[in-house]
Design brief:
The chain has 184 residues and is mostly beta strands. It has one domain. Helix content is 5%, strand content 39%. It has 1 helix and 11 strands, in the order E-E-E-E-E-H-E-E-E-E-E-E. Strand 6 and strand 7 form a beta hairpin. The chain is globular, with a radius of gyration of 18 Å.
């Protein structure tokens, strides 16, 4: 069967995009049917998420400036006819506290629903169909006064599509009656 492609052009955008992540939002509910409704190209803009059919609450973790990133790698095999995206969130958490250790242990137990908020105000859904997992990390006290006292964590997802953007309302907040982002 032939593959139908829809390609568009792209002009050079303004030089106003910045690198970095502001916050990461985690949902402790397991993804399932209806968790992300209209996640594919059915949003008001292609690749955006609109309403979800199941009520979900996301809690945020603020991240230190210039420390965390979301990387999406395109993995393609001509021989096998496959393409998928590996999404890796590397996040730094300053100051080791007991409550964080408990949360990290919980995060390691299963699939997570993760939304990454970049410094440009974009909300990207990581692992929107297959979920995300805590795949590695380190924690420590550091050796000198200027060293990191905290954790560096990695979360990984493998998806057929790149991480889609959440649709934002006129206030720049994620839109959807069943998606709640605490303390936004």
């Amino acid at each position: 069967m032939a593959c139908d492609l829809t390609l568009t052009g792209r002009s050079l955008p303004c030089r106003n995009a910045l690198g970095g992540i502001k916050r990461v939002w985690f949902c402790d509910e397991k993804q399932g049917p209806g968790f992300w409704d209209a996640i594919d190209d059915t949003g008001s803009t292609a690749g955006e998420v609109e309403d979800s059919t199941a009520a979900q609450t996301f809690n945020y973790w603020d991240l230190p400036k210039n420390s965390s990133s979301l990387t999406q790698t395109v993995n393609a095999s001509i021989e096998n006819g496959t393409v998928y995206y590996t999404q890796v969130l590397s996040m730094v958490i300053n100051n080791i506290v007991a409550a964080d250790i408990d949360s990290i242990e919980e995060m390691g137990k299963g699939d997570l629903s993760i939304v990454v908020e970049d410094v440009n105000g974009n909300f990207m859904v990581m692992g929107h169909k297959n979920g995300s997992i805590l795949s590695g990390g380190t924690g420590g006290t550091g050796a000198t006064m200027a060293d990191l006292n905290g954790f560096t964590l990695e979360f990984t997802a493998n998806e057929v599509d790149a991480a889609p953007f959440l649709h934002l309302d006129s206030n720049g907040e994620p839109e959807g009656t069943n998606l709640t982002f605490t303390n936004i």
